[in-house]
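tool_call predict_complex ligand=SN-glycerol-3-phosphate
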Amino acid sequence: MPFLRTSLAAFAALALAGCSPASEPEAPETQPEAATPFPTLTGELPAIVAHRGASGYLPEHTEAAFQLAFDQGADILEPDLMVSRDGVLIVRHDPYLSTSSDVADRPEFADRRRELMGREDWWVIDFTAGELQSLNARQVFEDRPQEYNDQFPIMTFGDFLDMVDAMQARCNCDIPVEPEIKLPAEHAAMGLDPLPILIAELEARGLNTEDSLVIIQSFDAPFLERLRPLTPLPLAMLHYGDAPGGDMNGYSLEQVAEFADAIGPYKGLLLNPDGSSTGYVERAHALGLVVHAWTHRDDRPSVIEGGTSDDELRALFALGVDGVFTDFPDTAVRIRDDMLRGE
Ligand code: G3P
Ligand code: CA
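tool_result ok
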């Protein structure tokens, strides 16, 4: 499917051009390309993917967090997507709501608390989109700033896309997005299959085309295989990393390359504890897979033993990852700029 590769290469290039004015003239074709220290698949600079927005600073998945990420220089915005009771895609990472919203302080929803998946909580699938939009977001991590809690509402995917449209109008630039469909099989089992909802929403907005700046990610290989014939958009298979060798529903990289354009591995699958390469990026690139690694966090230990989070980011960029999900886009911009200057 060569048109998909073209689409993804264009996506990667546009991701880096995303913060430039749309009307900016192109550089002359004869201009020699500067060498960079980033051995990415396309030769472009690695993209900085805002993980749930600038979620290290502001409550995740809020308009403020996405706007801050853009202002800090992020190239791509990532929303995670759940499904509401009435079949609307909701920008949320967790299927439960108590840790990321004010739902526990809302008496009108007190009786919605119930046990599911071994946990007592309030669940996205028990609320309509309108009810979810009435909730306010909170910082999930207790050691991150809490003073912005309860100021920004939960968004639907439609709200998110409206926000991106408005941001693009303000900057006169293109802003790529990388939505992740969370728990598609689990939602489908409850009668809330996200696949037709996603396709309908993208098509309604003219975004299910090969030149749209959208890349779809999921941890669910069968979901991406179902999606493949329904969209020309690039697909990214996420690779969970806690088990030795990680977990991709038992699929190999070679099998994933049959239906996906990109791979999203946990960063610890790319770097050995001493900071050396595991060879993963080279294997993925050899299969034509773009690599978007997750998740860099300034305030969490590095996967490099004795290394800083900056060391980890430098090592990932030096491996040639094509993108890095980060809660702190400003740090990734700084490190990428430093490396470009040879520092
Ligand atoms: O989608 C990349 C990365 O975000 C996967 O982990 O759990 O943060 O969605 P998670
Ligand atoms: Ca994600």
